[in-house]
Amino acid sequence: MISKFQIAYKSLLRKKVRTLLTVVGITLSSLVLVSLFGFNQGYEKALNHDIDNMGYQIMVMAKGCPYEAATLMLQGGKGLRYMDPGMVRDIAKRPEVQATTPILMQAFFDPNKGESGGIAGYFGVDPSSYPAMKPFLRFRKGSWFVSDTAREVVMGYEAAELEQREVGDMTMVPEKNVPLKVVGILERTGTQDDGTIFVPLKTLQQIAGTDKITTIGIKAKKDADLVRLENELYQLPDVQVVSFSQVKQTIMKLIGTARVMVLSIALIAVFIAMVGVANTVLMSVYERKQEIGILKTMGAMPHDIFVLVWTETLMLCAGGSVVGIMAAMLCNGITDLFIRRLLPYAPSGGLVAIDFRLALYTLGIILVVGLLSGLYPAWQAGRMRPLESIRSE
Amino acid sequence: MRRKPHDTRIGMLLALVPALLLVVLAALPAFGAVGCDLNDADRDVPRLFPGATRYQSIYVSIQKKGGAALQHRIEGRLGERHLALYAPIDVPYTIYEIYSGPKKVGYIHGVNQKGQFGGIQVFIAQDLSGKVKTFYIQKMTGPAAAKMRDPRFAKHFVGVTLKDFDSYDPITGKGTGRLAHVPNPAPEMETDFFGVLRGLKKNLVLMDAFIFSGGNP
């Protein structure tokens, strides 16, 4: 005996183009919806990963815009102002502080990058405290500097790739023309460290002609009251305190606005697709009026007709959303690249994380909304009077 | 028994959708290791290829064009064991196809080459016969890099073809022909001078493998 699914499938195939267009509409709306859910989940995860990999929870830097400073820090840019290195000792004395590390971010103009020159950024770090804060950094080859005044560099994987450097090669600080030896190349981390060139702090201070620093990285003790520590640090003169939990909150707030807008568009897309589903099924019901009438005269109950028409809706929605979700999963990388181009700051790692749970969740939403939109056509079909239907043109 | 053709059609339909998706995705570029792209293609293309009205970026990898066998052939032609540091076989090379109106008129392509103090990015614009129209060093590090990036130095390479390297070896610096007579604008950066020449040869060999001998992708 032929099943309800087979009848519904055959009905849908009667108007192939109409069915295909409806499925495409559902596919696109599910693709947008699941990608947006994936972005919701992935962005925060990637941001957390970036912040955890900073190795310290709080940064203290000379007064300026904290968000610009944080972005510069995350992306490895030039610091805004300089600070007195003596401040490191003062901060280290506080009971909540486990460790501190002084950092100098310095940028030099390289006239031989592209048509109009570019900036080469260097990260001056203290060899006695910085590596301990980042124990997860692994060397592809080589190791950290031999001394705090060594004329050496350690390169992140992508920096070494771009500069075509191996351990033992020389590199040169543009603008100052100071040669430095590459002593270590880090494994890829998927964070901003990949593009960073690390130099011993004192060496970079000497090259830049300053004895100051731009930043102090602070690692708090596990049970420390971070809010209290932040408030205490705010009392220091002429400094800006950047806590990564604050940075995260601010970035998430900024992203939240964009997320609401995209979610609205996705919901409109889902709504339009569902109107399309209702229209397709309703048209199909009206075209089969006589057929439905015959079914009823043969003993089919309103419930049977209702279920039959509803099955068509289910098949349209299930087919479209499964394809849409699969497409979203397969196009994950492309969506990621697209979003990265649009966002002012995108953390490293995958921005769109679509997992099985999310796929099922989206499928559920589309099916529920789809079945709701199929209620009216199914109800219309179920209440048709057999003889009137058979007589109709 | 009557159900069979019907079931087969459903199966075919279900199998076709992911298959089509995979075909579409396979045609898209892969993003892996650092390639060599123009910093600002919209600005650089008309400058490097005067007369160009538009361009199209295509992505080619040795993996797709011939795999390990092609890589060995290219390394053999270059006389070097590694094409570039950290460049796996599937690294995507960006080739800019240049158009003047509807007509394709040439290509622009760049390579990374190891230099004394950093990576050198050597770009060439070629006409459809493979002859160099413009030579451009996008990036170079060193005290005399400006001399190597000088347009007067670049002019020495206008008209060069892969054939010019038949009589000149950029690894030993020995040979005859026009390349042997190219003066080093910065004698203190001899390693980089030969690095530039090796980059030029690598660029020409890759373009020959990808486009001129290997067929247009």
From TrEMBL, chain A:
**Where in the cell is the protein located?**
Cell membrane
User: What is the protein name stated in its UniProt record?
Assistant: ABC transporter permease
Show where the ABC3 transporter permease C-terminal domain sits: 264-385
Q: How does it sit in the membrane?
A: Multi-pass membrane protein
Q: Could you list the residue ranges forming a coiled coil in this record?
A: none
Any one Gene Ontology cellular component term annotated for this protein: plasma membrane
Q: Which organism is the protein's source?
A: Geomesophilobacter sediminis
Using the record's annotation, list all stretches that form the MacB-like periplasmic core domain. Answer: 19-233
The record lists the membrane-crossing segments as 20-39, 260-285, 305-338, 358-379
Which controlled-vocabulary keywords does the entry list? Cell membrane, Membrane, Transmembrane, Transmembrane helix
Automatic annotation (TrEMBL), chain B:
Q: What is this protein called?
A: Uncharacterized protein
